[in-house]
Amino acid sequence: MRMMAGNLFIILFIGIFTLFFMETTKEMSSAQSLQTVLDDAVELEQITLHSNSLILDRDGNTISDIFSAENRIYLPYNEIPDMFKHAFLAAEDQSFFDHPGFDMTGIARAFIVNIQHQSIEQGGSTITQQLARNLYLTHDQSYERKISELLYSYHIEQVMEKEEILELYLNTVYFSNGVYGIEAASHYYFNKTAHELTLAEIAFLSSVPNNPAHYNPLTNSDATHERKEWILAKMKEQDYISNDDYEEALDKKISLSNFEKSDEYPDYITYVYYELEQLIAKEEGYAQQLKSASNDEARQDIEIKLQERVQHLLASGITVDTALDPNVQSHAVKTINNRLSSTDIQGAVSVIDHEASEIVAMTGGTSYEKFNFHRGYQAYRQPGSAIKPLLVYAPLIDTTKMSSSSLIDAGPIRRGQYEPQNFGGAVYGKVTLEEALKNSYNTAAVRILDMVGIEASFNYLDQFDFKKITSNDHVLPAALGGLSEGVSVHELTQAYTIFATDGIYTSPKAIRGVYDMDGELLYEWPRKETEVWTNDTVNEMRKMLGKVITEGTGRRARFSTSGYLGGKTGTTNDYHDLWFVGSSNRYTTGLWLGKDNPSSLYQQSQNHIHTQLWRDIMAGIH
């Protein structure tokens, strides 16, 4: 009885709606009245479609596909292959370009079938109706939903061009297995773009949306093939393809090649996510808001908004172009893992192309997994003597114009209760700056910081990207790396690039640019150059850092190369941290070794593991 009442109601509604539409199309004023009614009764919300985002390496290769529940790659109308349009028009809506959003003939035909079966067997839905259902309504099989669908469809046709409707439809239609739209479906099932598919493959894919569960190619391909043949017949019937095309497509073998989501280089990708958040924070004002936040609660609210903004962008189909060099990254990861994975020692590396000021590789720890604690940029440790070139020697040369051959007193020094010692308690007298640095004399370093002045030296250091160095660190022990929170290996490596760039610092970045789906640039880091030291200062520093490798504490870091090599070791109290940071003509690379729960690496230090690892990494990328 309810079925009969529903049938009578839908007949009545269709009749009234048809007459109303016919009358209102006769007179413009009536049409405007109908549109006013629809504007009030049917609210078309702003359409926001999730689309896949990509992270690319320096050569434009995809290294990470980013999508959540909706796997979609949006294609604008002019990039949608004509054969896909023809397949769906032939199979789903042959009068699409003529009807006002609904097809009364199709509805009547479906109604007769439903009467015969005493159930809702067919819907008679146009492409516009299906779009309305996908975007604004549910998929419930009810007459109430069907009536809403008609109203929404007609309204959509009034505010959108036919091409816009077809574009949206082909990007929102569901292809089973979490895949939406023809481009994502082409990638998922055939590992090709939509433009690369054959006619047979297009007809095969176009079969799925009619009933995604029944025509799922992975679980019921026989049914999919059967409907494919039906679609090809419809395409021939509508003169979209010739008889030869039809016969050839029928005989064409379909071979699925399931898509595998790209998610390579987890160490580097994790850092890219972090840098993307920093870039958006800077460009959209969140960074300034965080800086000005009055309390922790306000700061937390801003951080939540920033993270939501990042997720919104990632769901909009952006492309993040990076400087990753896959060969350098793979070599660095392999070298660290081969040496350390069987131990409880952790290691992290940052490799920077200092001429381009780009981060080409970064590791997060041994056997690193994506989004875990990243020791490359999140681990803050005491830098030991590796801080001396930046905080001690370069400021001295820059302010006094001394040279590497100038003498400095390396004898005992006491300032208040502070009395630093050299390694093994050794006592020295007057030595050259070169000797003091290459042999890492602590007494000389503290005396130099005292001579230059703590504030003057930190004024130099503040021009780099050290995030956790504060006024609390402005003390003499800082000359030996005694900092309250320390530095990350990536921060230290960034700062060391200045010894290869004539004293001009440009903050190295991983992200080259962020682009929207149309290829328009959304964000890029502004290139800001800061002259920290004079060219003469850098030349003297390069001489001394070169001697560290040829004659000093970094001799085991040396490898055969025709270009420059220079760097500095670092060891902290009780051998908790081992460092080496240095440059060749092309790369500046920093290495840190330690344990998550700090304990002595004395034996490893004696075996020069840090300098040897640095050498192995650098030799393998030159």
UniProtKB/TrEMBL annotation:
Domain of life: Bacteria
All residue ranges annotated as the Penicillin-binding protein transpeptidase domain in the record: 347-585
Membrane among keywords: yes
Keyword field: Carboxypeptidase, Cell membrane, Cell shape, Cell wall biogenesis/degradation, Glycosyltransferase, Hydrolase, Membrane, Multifunctional enzyme, Peptidoglycan synthesis, Protease, Transferase
Coiled coil: none
Reaction(s) catalysed (UniProt annotation): [GlcNAc-(1->4)-Mur2Ac(oyl-L-Ala-gamma-D-Glu-L-Lys-D-Ala-D-Ala)](n)-di-trans,octa-cis-undecaprenyl diphosphate + beta-D-GlcNAc-(1->4)-Mur2Ac(oyl-L-Ala-gamma-D-Glu-L-Lys-D-Ala-D-Ala)-di-trans,octa-cis-undecaprenyl diphosphate = [GlcNAc-(1->4)-Mur2Ac(oyl-L-Ala-gamma-D-Glu-L-Lys-D-Ala-D-Ala)](n+1)-di-trans,octa-cis-undecaprenyl diphosphate + di-trans,octa-cis-undecaprenyl diphosphate + H(+); Preferential cleavage: (Ac)2-L-Lys-D-Ala-|-D-Ala. Also transpeptidation of peptidyl-alanyl moieties that are N-acyl substituents of D-alanine
Family the UniProt entry places it in: In the N-terminal section; belongs to the glycosyltransferase 51 family. In the C-terminal section; belongs to the transpeptidase family.
Keyword Membrane (UniProt): yes
GO molecular function: penicillin binding; peptidoglycan glycosyltransferase activity; serine-type D-Ala-D-Ala carboxypeptidase activity
Record-annotated Glycosyl transferase family domain positions: 60-236
Biological source species: Salipaludibacillus agaradhaerens (Bacillus agaradhaerens)
Pfam family of the protein (one): Transgly
Protein name: PBP1A family penicillin-binding protein
Source lineage: Bacteria, Bacillati, Bacillota, Bacilli, Bacillales
Chief location: membrane
BP term (GO), one: proteolysis
InterPro entries linked to this entry: Beta-lactam/transpept-like, Glyco_trans_51, Glycosyltr_51/Transpeptidase, Lysozyme-like_dom_sf, PBP_transglycosylase, PCN-bd_Tpept
Localization, UniProt: Cell membrane
GO CC terms, sorted: outer membrane-bounded periplasmic space; plasma membrane
